[in-house]
């Protein structure tokens, strides 16, 4: 199995679980895990996990959630085996007190460590990882939902946004509420554009606090602000035949009103409506996102 990278660069992998593991023929609107798990291909991959990981996957009621959990477990093990050069069965993952994953090696030490973080949403799973434990990483992925646009439109965008006043500062809330899409559009499309801008703010908060090793309950959450936020355009908006659209890295970060300059944060638009945010607590190269097929030994 080839080594991922010989330097300290951050690998960023994506997996589309809709392309993996056959769905049950159940007539349920959301297929159930109990109907999906007995499949031979599913069982083969579940058996590559520890008993704790397997139980975690099977705790999910709906197949869509179980598939993302399974892909997440496989991605973490794959990153550990390639970066730390340990056998698959020794690539054990534990969670710290803030539910952040870390590598646990039972028995002899290899002297190699890894920083990693994962996120999943709407059928896609994302992983960021790099050699060593000194670097802190966070990643978050979000996507648009037509149903969510309709719900927000009915409620009123500003009223809906103000419900998140425990997460965003007054300055951020005003920025989100008053955001004007760069191109004129009909009311429904305008709500969609404003909601995508909100999603970006949310994903940046998530990626940052995950990098810091905390969650959205961090006491300083409202003191963390993102300014000069422009939503990157997707490939279809740029008339590109590509999975990937724009990437931006010029968002201004403030903590307790002081500019944060030692955190690297990058936003990537991809597919139709997805946004991924990666954050690191130091200047380090981010390798391009790569879609993986879990049946293969190397990125596709």
Question: What does it look like?
Answer:
- With 300 residues, the protein is α+β, with helices and mostly antiparallel strands.
- Helix content is 30%, strand content 24%.
- The chain contains eight helices and 13 strands.
- The chain has helices spanning 33-36, 40-46, 51-58, 63-84, 146-155, 157-162, 170-177, 187-211; strands spanning 10-16, 92-95, 101-104, 114-121, 124-131, 137-142, 224-227, 244-248, 252-255, 258-259, 264-270, 274-280, 286-291.
- The strands form four sheets. It has a four-stranded mixed sheet, covered by helices on one side. It has a four-stranded antiparallel sheet with strand order 6-12-11-8, covered by helices on one side. Strands 7-9-10 form a three-stranded antiparallel sheet.
- Helix 3 runs antiparallel to helix 4 and helix 5 crosses helix 8 (187-211).
- The protein is globular and about 50 Å long.
- It starts with 9 loop residues before the first strand and ends in a 9-residue tail after the last strand.
